Request: fold
Amino acid sequence: MDNDQFNKLAEMLYPNVLDASFYLQKYAPRNVKGEVTRIAPSPTGFLHIGQLYQALVHRMLANKTGGIFYCRLEDTDTKREVENAGEIAYDMLVRFGLKPDEGYRGGHKEIGDYGPYVQSERTQIYNAFAKELVKRGHAFPCFCAAAENKEEILKRREEELNESADIEVKDPCRNLTLKEIENNLAAGKKFALRLKSEGDINKTHVFEDKIKGKKDLRENAKDDVLIKSNGIPVYAFAHVVDDTLMGTTTVIRGQEWYQSLPVHLELSRAFDFKPFKYAHTPNICVLDETTGNKRKISKRKDTFADVRFFLKKGYPVNAVIEYLLNLLNSDFEIWRKNNPDLPYTDFPFDIKKIGVTNPLFDFVKLNDISKTIISKMTAEEVYNNALSWAQEWDEDSYKIIKENKAALISVLSIDRGGERPRKDITYYSEICELYNYVLPSFKADYQIELGEVDKASLTEFLSAYADEYTEAIDNTAWFENLKDIAARFNFVDNKTYKQNPTAYAGNVSDASKFVRLAITGKTNSPELYSIMKILGAAECKSRIKILVKNLAD
Ligand code: GLU
Reply:
């Protein structure tokens, strides 16, 4: 076919469709100096931790360069669409502090001059660009009715060809004449639009990925479908058209798209579009519990794949974000150490420092970051955050936290502030359990593990301590008092005593361990002196006596 025939064909396939040039003028190039990045969630499920990780790259890159980060909803897979998934995805971005500057905002809301930002509302635009591609001789209609039928045809073709045939697949419909096409259309046959690939598998694109570096990529030589027979574009087509019209400068997306990049490059070239910069991020992985092998985080196996997991658990959002930053740029940790009080947004993020190997998600590290972040908050901040967490996720805890404000703030205030604040809270959902001993529902009625301790002398010590305990004025006096009383008893574990008899007298660490157990039921708690003050002498004495009684049973 010659140019005239291509133009005719374009009119036949897409009558009454505006020219692509209309949209190219309508969406004028952006006047931004920095990078324009975008997140493009599909509403087929929840926002995945891997998407949050990418969104962080988008946000940081746009921030660092004075650019724009926008959101586009890719809702072309209507079969797999989950109700409200788009809204939830947007909401999650906002909640994790990665609010896009522009684009889709959940529901029917959007903001910005480059919309519509929802793909299902862009059919006219896709038609215009489909028509343009036909005019340029880079696309053709394919009338094979059922996909199964098509597969068969292609399979037969492949079998007929030699070994490398699987990558050089030219579709049989590319050779239809104008007349044949006209007849098919007159017969009411539906068509899918395919790329008329000009790629050569013996040639490569020389290409530089912002993360993977310089690469030689074998050209695409397949006549891939661009628009399905129901008029819905496939990812490749929508990506190239949308990202061009919306002015994306760097396409940052998951590793899984890297394989199909040659098609995207060929399409951009077919349109004469300016090529994008691309960055394909590594996948966050876990070690599989059964095989012990590294694998991608799975929606089915890993509950934390859904970012709501972290909110439900009560992690501060910044803990998750800082952890992800740590996975992205390994020098973040050093920067954080040197700049403990700066917001993470001040970190000089560098896309080039993202490693190519898939990082492992490590809860130990995340928890440590989370503990540090919570340890730097004031008691009131922790309390208010825990209350908001409970209000959203846990009705019972909400009631408890709300009704015990004073006690909780008192216990949260212990060991807080100063150079080395206490790092005992990992997430808000553990507060009621962690500090249950200051709550009215607490029952001090428990049995304890004695280990090698001599039960009789421990009982004597605890009884004496319960009798003699008075609220001390300060910590030092409290400690001296405990030491003095402890020195009168031999409850220290026999083995230790035999090894080092001089260490025995006044073994205050054992003494305080058992008093702590009596008061809190735990081996670990904030400063005991302060807890005892919060509870008051009568309550403390009563708890110690309950333990004494339990030891006797
Ligand atoms: N809708 C695609 C996805 O959710 C977007 C990929 C991209 O960022 O280009 O995977």
